[in-house]
Amino acid sequence: MSERRIDRLTSLLRRRGVVLPSFEIYGGVSGLVDYGPVGARIKRKVVDSWIDHWTSQGDIVEVDSPTLTPESVLVASGHVGEFNDLMVSCNSCESAFRADHLLENVHQNPDSLSVDEVSSLLSQGISCPACSEAKWSDVRPMNLMFSTRIGAMSRGRSAYMRPETAQGMFMLYPALFRHFKQKLPFGAVQTGKGYRNEISPRQGMIRLREFDMAELEYFIDPESPPCPELSIWSTPVMMVPDPEGHHAGECEMTYEDALSKGIIRHPTVAWFLARTMDFLVNVGVEPSKIRFRQHSGSEMAHYAEDCWDCELHGEHGWVECVGIANRTCHDLESHERASGSKLLRAWRQYDEPKNEVKDFLAPISAVIGPAFKGQAGAVVESLSQLTELPENIPFDLELTDGSSVRITEEMVTRRTDEVTVHGEWFTPHVIEPAFGIDRIVWHILDHAFTETEKEGEPYSVMRLNSRVAPYDVAVLPLFDKPGMLKIAHDVITRVNSVPGRKGEMDSSKSIGRRYARVDEIGVPWAVTIDHDSMEDGTVTVRRRDDQKQIRCSVDELIDTLSNGDLSTMF
C-alpha cells in the first residue's frame, strides 16, 4: 500500500507542477529536481517562514555569501581532506554505490565504519541491488564537492561549489561582530544552494546533488552560554538519546528534563531543539512524526561536543532533515590558523580588573629592522603575541603567514612588567542548526497528502498549512462568461493587492474539476463567482478541509484577508 501511495503522490506532484525531474526531455539527471510554478511558491514560503522564525528573535540577522568558495577556505575547514563518502562498484554490472547504503540492514551506523570494516562486511555475501551479484571492487573514499576554477586559464584559482552555507558565515564573523557592537551572543542565517556530488542519489527529494539549505550559526561565549527558559515547552517530545549513554532507547521527555538529566549536554542546544520543533509544526509537519536522535560518540564529528538530528517520518521512513550541533570553537580557530587573521575572536570583560605580572620579549628595533627588512613588522607583532616564552634563546618564531624566523639574543630583551588587565580575547563557540529545505518540503507534502472518495471516485486533497500553501485564495468563475470573468478578474486583482496575499484564477473546464485542482495543490480557500455575484456583488467562499461554504460580499472577503484569516468568517 505504501508504494502505491508514494507513486500516486509523486504523480500528483509532477502533474500539478510541484516537483518534477530536471532535464526530462534529455533523459533526466539523477539527483536534480525542478520546482514548478506551484512547488516554487511552496518552497519560497517555507524559506521565508524559516527566515522570519529565526530573525524575529532580534539577535540573528540574514546574510548572503557566494556559492563559489576558494579552495583555501575549504582546506582550512577540513572539507578538502575529509568531506568524503566511501564508494564501491559492482565488478559484474559496473554500477556504483555509496558503500554505507549497502550496509543499512547489516550495521546500525554504517557511515561511521572504516574502509576495512566496510570491505569486510561487503565480503559477507552482500549482493548488488542492480544485478544481484556479490563481486565488489575495492572500497575507496570519494570527495563529494564539485570542483571548478575562479579566473581564466593558468591564472585561475582552484575552487569548489559550496557543500554548505556555513563557511561563508564564518568568513563574515568580523562584520557580524562589528554589526552587533562587539557583544555576544549573536547569530546569522543564510539560505541558498548547496552542492554535493552524491555517489548514488536516491529517494527523490531526499538525496540531491543540488539542494536548498538553511543554516544558522549562533556565536556564544562558552563561559556564559545563553540559557533560555525551557519550561514554556511543557509537552514531551520523542527523543532517541545516545545509545552509548545511560538513557538508550526511544523515549518521550521535555527539553528541560533532558537537559537536567544530562542527555542534552548544552542549554543553548536544548533551546534550538525546542525552536526547531516549533518551526516544523508551524509549517505543517505532523508533530507525531518528529523525533530528535542524538549522535553516538562514534558517529559524532570530532569537533562537536553534542549533536542531534531532527528526523521526520514519512514514505521513506525516518529521515534526517535538521542537524543541530555544538561545533565549539573548531571552525573559527581553524580559519584563524590557516589565514593568520586575528579578527575571529571576541572580547570578554572581567567583572573586576586584574593585576598581572607578565614576562615578555621586547624587540630591539635597531637589530630586527636590518635583519628582517620587509618582515620586521610581522616579527614584532608575533613577538608581542607570544603567550609562552621560550626557555632558551635563540629560538624559531612562527609568523602569522605560517613561515618562521630565527630569533637570536641580540634581537630581544627579556622583561617583566606588572600590568592591569581589564579583559581577554577568546574564540567564540558556535551552535549550528542546519536545515535541509528540500527534505522538509517533501515531508510537508507527504504529511498533507490525503486520499478520500467523492461521489464514488478517488479524491486527493493536499491539506497544506496556510503559511506554506502556494496561493491564499483560488478565484473560480462558475462559467466562462464575460460578466463572471470580469468580476473574477476584479476579485483576483484586489486579492493580489493585499500585502502578503496571492491568489490564482481558474476558469477552465467544469467547476468540479477546478475545485479538485485547487484541492490537489493545497489552496485553503476557493471563491466562486456565480449568477448572484453579478446581481448583488456576493461570492461563495469554500473551505478546503471540510468543504463548508458561506456567502459574503467581495468587500468583506478583502477586508478579512487584509486583517486576518478567512476562517474567522466561519
Quick recap:
The chain is of the alpha+beta class. Helix content is 30%, strand content 30%. It is globular, with a radius of gyration of 30 Å.
CATH class of the largest domain: Alpha Beta
At the fold tier of CATH, the topology name of the largest domain is: BirA Bifunctional Protein, domain 2
User: How much beta, percentage-wise?
Assistant: 25-35%
* Sheet having the most strands: 9 strands, mixed
Average residue-wise pLDDT: 92
Q: Strands across the major sheet, in which order?
A: 3-10-11-21-16-15-14-12-13
Task: Tell me what the CATH architecture of the largest domain is.
Answer: 2-Layer Sandwich
Cα radius of gyration in angstroms: 30 Å
Tell me the name of the CATH homologous superfamily of the largest domain: Bira Bifunctional Protein, Domain 2
End-to-end separation in angstroms reads: 36 Å
Identify the overall geometry: globular
Q: State the helix count.
A: 18
Total number of beta strands? 28
Catalogue the unreliable spans. none
As for the number of domains, it is 4
How would you explain this protein's 3D organization?
This protein has 570 residues and is α+β, with helices and mostly antiparallel strands. The chain has 4 domains: 231 residues, Bira Bifunctional Protein, Domain 2 (BirA Bifunctional Protein, domain 2, 2-Layer Sandwich); 59 residues, Herpes Virus-1 (2-Layer Sandwich), CATH 3.30.40.230; 76 residues, no CATH class; 99 residues, 3-Layer(aba) Sandwich (Rossmann fold). The strands form 8 sheets. The chain has a 9-stranded mixed beta sheet with strand order 3-10-11-21-16-15-14-12-13.
